[in-house]
UniProtKB/TrEMBL annotation, chains A, B, C, D:
Residues 80-105 are annotated as: Disordered. It comes from the Bacteria. The lineage of its organism: Bacteria, Pseudomonadati, Thermodesulfobacteriota, Desulfobulbia, Desulfobulbales. Residues 5-95 form the Thiamine-binding protein domain. Pfam families: Thiamine_BP (PF01910). Belongs to the UPF0045 family. It comes from Desulfofustis limnaeus. Gene3D superfamilies: 3.30.70.930. InterPro entries: MTH1187/YkoF-like, Thiamine_BP, UPF0045_domain. This is Thiamine-binding protein domain-containing protein.
Length: 105, 105, 105, 105
């Protein structure tokens, strides 16, 4: 079952800079061969359900291994049976609608 | 790895009443023997990582089987290594703090 | 415009125990006269859009005032025009469906 | 109080294609002069608290005006007092960490 996920991993108890921990998660996604898109509040991930959720679990295990005592992940995950749709399709379908509307009056 | 999760399952393309689909998910949690707490915007779930996420996957498979063409689940999942904490502990720790503060001035 | 919200306030940089900060938020909801329901991963809040979001803003201001350097709030907010529905209605509509299904086979 | 937000607007009861409604929201952000970044599961928005949340409210009002009977928005909103950080800073801080790590072994 193919999914598109949006994942925000929040490590607690290790200060205010989270980027080292987010970078560690991206290594996990890359090693798993998952397609990702980093944005300012998380990462879009595309792939099969089991592979994507295995990567999320590995993020928690890895970050705990790095000494993070408490982790909260915020996840949005979508599945659909009506059609195949990848990350780029979702973005371009909105951009096409905006282009049809023309410049903002 | 023990988790506390908050899960909101949103079925699209099947009208405005989602309660039949949420009830179907609760049957899955019950069959899996998971501890749950239904609230107005989702369900808290407590259990082992693999069992809890297997139940979420089964919700998507079951709802698609009920004819739902598109599903988005919004998940918050927490793990911690500093101490054991169940759902009731989390609620009572806030209620105790409120009790200490006494009536609102 | 009436809303039902689910709010999780996450303070960073102040250790692992968040309950004092959640209790401070609940004082704000109570002072604003908002209807709330505390659960294991956040708080359901019911009220008018402006009053509920003013309370969220006050949570951020208050917690920064308590010395929290970084805060992330995770919010689900729902509005509908097809019918009036309060927090209890949402919960009972699922519980009624579960009752109709009878004991799990 | 400056915020960085991640917003996902989900319209219910109007079929499976949400892009026309997301495009309508982007017109609102543009008219408000807000800085945005569209991704596959929502939109990052940067600006002052009141302006950003006023735009979210206008999204709900506009979509209801377009005939959407039920809307759920999923929001992550962050504020910090320790330093100024914009959307690009958050992304580049992770990308720099990844660059330091070098290619994945």
């Amino acid at each position: 079952m193919k999914v598109i996920m949006d994942l925000t991993v929040s490590p607690f108890g290790v200060g205010l800079s989270v980027s080292p921990y987010i970078a560690a998660c991206h290594e996990i996604f890359e090693q798993a061969g998952l397609k990702t898109n980093l944005h300012a509040y998380g990462t879009n991930i595309e792939g099969e359900w089991d592979e994507v959720f295995a990567a999320v679990k590995k993020c928690h295990e890895t970050l705990h291994g790095m000494g993070v005592p408490r982790i909260t992940s915020s996840i949005k995950v979508g599945t659909r049976t009506d059609k195949e749709q990848g990350m780029e399709d979702k973005i371009s379908s909105v951009k096409n609608k905006l282009a049809e509307k023309g410049p903002i009056r």
